[in-house]
């Protein structure tokens, strides 16, 4: 019997080889195995082509067999793109899934596993296909089918860190949060505060918060390094039907170049966001629906990745973590080594609640009142910074647009009018005015050039400002969740104190909660401190760069005008 | 019996002391004698005030007595503002007369004589009242009542030199132009070519055209001078009800300061335009309907007058002519001397046709084919220059507007956004970032300043360009008439040659026409040569000035940015 699928949504082909499908249309499949998120099939009119696997449901008698899972490390059923009854109600909570390669979504989505292709490094992912979320030791992930299964990263709501959700097994006297969608719960913060996290912390995993001049801070990376991102090159695969861009990464601590694709960054991002509940993992530059291979986009993405890499290598914790080191160092041609590291990262136990186990704090516990006031101050600060960054971004964006269109047009119109005047003057039949005519003509050209200068300038000074703002807008979107985790912990402390006073909890247990809240608070304040430090560093550098570019621009304009002025000397 | 007048048009009072009147409203007058073109009267509601004399007709039994004329030097009836039956039909050919002081017309109008006030130097004129056109030796001026009586100067049509109209008395065999409105006729060119002009040319009136490197040119002024225009001050008169601006003129050849009002310039302009048929008399800066006493306008008019004066003193013929010298030298406090010179100028016989009598030409007569080709080339040139000046003027005007509004706004928006960011950053509670916050705030201020620079700049560089273009647009409007006169003369030559061939004219008469056409051609080519020379001089200087100002502007912007950049040094 032919394998068939029913379209869940309309899909319009945008590239050769793709097949448009209509909702409810039944298609004949060649294989139920998707390639890069695409299935190949034939419609009733005999047309053959590729369509997104997530746009169809495979029709079969036995719904249970839909759970295609090549991963045997866990007995948990994995979330699949095959609806199995509950799919449609679930998708109501999220937007219609996008086509894997040319979709418009901007966040790594986890609703579409790479069925059975975990081990197939070369062919399993495209830029917008996603990686399998292999259930590690944290049980029950994605088993919840009431709406929070396929979560999304990097949305501007507070659900952006909703990855490391923990099913708690204990029944502590301090009550658990009833809202299982709360970031505090999902991040593992609650589980950790309630003493439910456990794991063996290797020496290499230990993360130190030290007391610095301005409060708790992450211990500096004793081996700081940076990493360059060069030469994005286009590669093709899948008989040339699918292409991708490969970036050359060269970390300064190895000096060995590795090739990485955007999807590798995406995979890394997912690991980091899952692992670190109170660290602001920089957001990746956004995906783009179309024109992925256009030079402008490639150049822009590369710049975004450079900023991202800069924030990664600048972060004392992120820079040193295993998965990032694996990403930077694993030889791109040695598939086995890569896969080994990839699996290891995906099985990392020290994620979410367990991450807090790895943190060692300064000897003196923090004054929670002081912490609370600092956190509240920071909350106010991030709100203001977010508002003013948005405003600046809008202004700068408009300013760039004006320079590219309006300013350019005005200067060029002036240039053209001067040239028209010089052309009229050339008809004067007077030999003694030819010098003037040439000079005016040159002035016209100068103004046309200045128009060009204006239109070229934003890419040199305003675009980098916007890139920086985009990165910081990502951080600012992370912090509400980070603050939420800390505030959740503090609430538990207050509750536990009350319980102790009411005799419902013994003092030791409350002290444990207090101690663990201290760990979360130290980590949160260290992260805030780190944020301020890189912010001052980045904005200082960026403002300097912007002003230097502006000065160079106005000097160039001045130089052009001086050149024009000289033409009148011997007129 | 009370003196009464009927309103011919609606008049809305715009200033204290003025009285609004409705068309056909009957007003009681205090006197039929207007003051500065204003009459004082009372309406039916008992309201008293001033209204323009030209807006009303005085009601009386004897229409003949309407011809109020204090000038006894001629027996010819003078054109008056009192309708005398034919007024209304005549005004249909022209626009409704404007209020004398606050009218919007931009040309000196001659339809309103200063009734009996010729001798009253202090009170006879306001800026927009006009001077009596005293009929001189040229008979019949303004006696034609068929529509071309009140002519206007400085309109962009070819009627702009329609002043020195001549009624011819001879009946030459070369036919006269049937179109008596033709510039050739009105300028006196035809009368001169036909040998109808006669007069005694004093040595001092002689004007030489010499053969220069590039063809005929005006003999240089052996005593070149310039004249400064300073300190426009507001003066009041008429019990403070009327005000005017007085300019201080200091010619370099006398070093004696004289005070002149716009109306004096206006009077002078009328004399010059009447006197010189083939000389492009620079147009005065335009009048303004309202805001005559606002600083901007006064400053702008002064600049316009400076340009005008520059073109007057630069012109070898205009600079030396008696009426201009009288204007520059007559002591403003010695009324008698002024009036004497004024009357003398108004009685000048060497105007129009007779002007050509004063011209002496180079010994070798011109080749008329060569002249025709040069004139045609110049005609093409003026058309192109007119088009491109108009285009440049529109562009520059728009560019100024953009800088004052759009550019300023964009830079200030950027400035404000930087300041908002610095204000947000000030909430960060981090001591180490205060330097950055101050630097960003300073950068914000710098961008707000740059916005101001942009809005202030056009008055420094674009406005002077527009002033220059306005002056040249005036010249370009003059040349069609000048060319017309020369072409008319050339046509007469061709006609006369034909007539000689046909035996209708004797050779001597034809030679006279040829000779007189040579005089007109020499003068025309000399004027064209002069135009090109000052054009090259003016545009060279103006373009240099513009570029220098632009360079200074961009350097100022650069300096401001460098100042801002320095603030980041110790951050």
The quaternary structure here is homodimer
The averaged pLDDT of chain A comes out at 79
Poorly predicted parts of chain A:
62-173
Strand content of chain A: 5-15%
And the CATH topology of one domain in chain A? Substrate Binding Domain Of Dnak, Chain:A, Domain 2
Give the topology string of chain A: H per helix, E per strand.
Answer: EEEEEHHHEEEEEHHHHEHHHH
Distance between the termini of chain A: 91 Å
CATH architecture of one domain in chain A: Up-down Bundle
Protein name (chains A, B): Sorting nexin
Membrane topology (chains A, B): Peripheral membrane protein
InterPro entries (chains A, B): AH/BAR_dom_sf, PX_dom, PX_dom_sf, SH3-like_dom_sf, SH3_domain, Snx9_fam, Sorting_nexin_WASP-bd-dom
GO cellular component, one term (chains A, B): plasma membrane
Tell me what the structure shows.
The structure is a homodimer of 571-residue chains. With 571 residues, chain A is α+β, with helices and mostly antiparallel strands. Among the domains of chain A are: 56 residues, Roll (SH3 type barrels), CATH 2.30.30; 133 residues, Phox-like domain (PX Domain); 200 residues, Substrate Binding Domain Of Dnak, Chain:A, Domain 2, CATH 1.20.1270. In chain A, the strands form 3 sheets. In chain A, strands 4-3-2-1-5 form a 5-stranded antiparallel β-sheet, with no helix packed on it. In chain A, a hairpin with a 5-residue loop joins strand 3 and strand 4. In chain A, helix 8 packs antiparallel against helix 10. At the A-B interface, helix 8, helix 9 and helix 11 of A face helix 8, helix 9 and helix 11 of B.
């Amino acid at each position: 019997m032919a394998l068939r699928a029913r379209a869940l949504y309309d899909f319009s082909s945008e590239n050769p080889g793709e097949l448009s499908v209509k909702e409810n249309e039944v298609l004949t499949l060649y294989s139920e195995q998707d390639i890069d998120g695409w299935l190949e099939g034939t419609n009733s009119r005999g047309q053959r082509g590729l369509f997104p696997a997530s746009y169809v449901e495979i029709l079969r008698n036995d719904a249970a067999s839909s759970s295609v899972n090549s991963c045997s490390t866990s007995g948990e059923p994995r979330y699949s793109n095959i609806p199995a009854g509950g799919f449609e109600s679930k998708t109501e909570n999220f937007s219609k899934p996008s086509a894997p390669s040319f979709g418009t979504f901007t966040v790594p989505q986890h609703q579409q596993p790479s069925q059975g292709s975990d081990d197939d490094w070369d062919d399993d992912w495209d830029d917008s296909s996603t990686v399998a979320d292999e259930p590690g030791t944290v049980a029950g992930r994605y088993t919840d089918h009431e709406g929070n299964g396929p979560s999304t990263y990097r949305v501007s709501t507070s659900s952006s860190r909703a990855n490391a959700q923990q099913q708690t097994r204990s029944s502590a006297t301090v009550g658990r949060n009833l809202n299982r969608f709360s970031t505090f719960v999902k991040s593992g913060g609650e589980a950790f505060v309630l003493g439910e996290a456990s794991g063996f912390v290797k020496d290499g995993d230990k993360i130190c918060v030290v007391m610095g001049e301005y409060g708790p801070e992450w211990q500096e990376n004793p081996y700081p390094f940076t990493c360059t991102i060069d030469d994005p090159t286009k590669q093709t695969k899948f008989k040339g039907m699918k292409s991708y861009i490969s970036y050359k990464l060269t970390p300064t601590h190895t000096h060995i170049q590795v090739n990485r694709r955007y999807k590798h960054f995406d995979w890394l991002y997912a690991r980091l966001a899952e692992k670190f509940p109170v660290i602001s993992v920089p957001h990746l530059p956004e995906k783009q629906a179309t024109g992925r291979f256009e030079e402008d986009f490639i150049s822009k993405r590369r710049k975004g990745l450079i900023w991202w890499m800069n924030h990664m290598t600048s972060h004392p914790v992120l820079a040193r973590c295993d998965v990032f080191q694996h990403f930077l160092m694993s030889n791109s041609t040695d598939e086995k080594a890569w896969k080994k590291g990839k699996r290891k990262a995906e099985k990392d136990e020290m994620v979410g609640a367990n991450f807090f186990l790895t943190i060692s704090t300064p000897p003196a516990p923090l004054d929670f009142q002081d912490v609370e006031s600092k956190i509240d101050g920071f909350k106010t600060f991030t709100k203001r910074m977010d508002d003013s960054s948005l405003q600046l971004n809008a202004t700068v964006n408009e300013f760039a647009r004006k320079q590219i269109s309006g300013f350019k047009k005005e200067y060029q119109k002036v240039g053209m009018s001067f040239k028209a005047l010089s052309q009229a003057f050339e008809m004067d039949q007077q030999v003694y005015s030819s010098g003037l005519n040439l000079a005016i003509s040159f002035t016209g050209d100068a103004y046309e050039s200045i128009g060009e200068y204006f239109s070229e300038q934003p890419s040199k000074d305003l675009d980098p400002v916007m890139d920086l703002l985009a990165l910081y807008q990502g951080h600012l979107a992370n912090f509400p969740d980070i603050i939420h985790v800390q505030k959740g912990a503090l609430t538990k402390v207050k509750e536990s104190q009350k319980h102790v006073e009411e005799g419902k909890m013994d003092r030791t247990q409350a002290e444990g909660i207090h101690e663990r809240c201290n760990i979360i608070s130290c980590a949160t304040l260290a992260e805030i401190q780190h944020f301020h430090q890189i912010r001052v560093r980045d904005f200082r550098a960026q403002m300097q760069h912007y002003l230097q570019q502006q000065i160079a621009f106005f000097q160039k304009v001045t130089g052009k005008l001086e050149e024009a002025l000289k033409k009148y000397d011997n007129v």
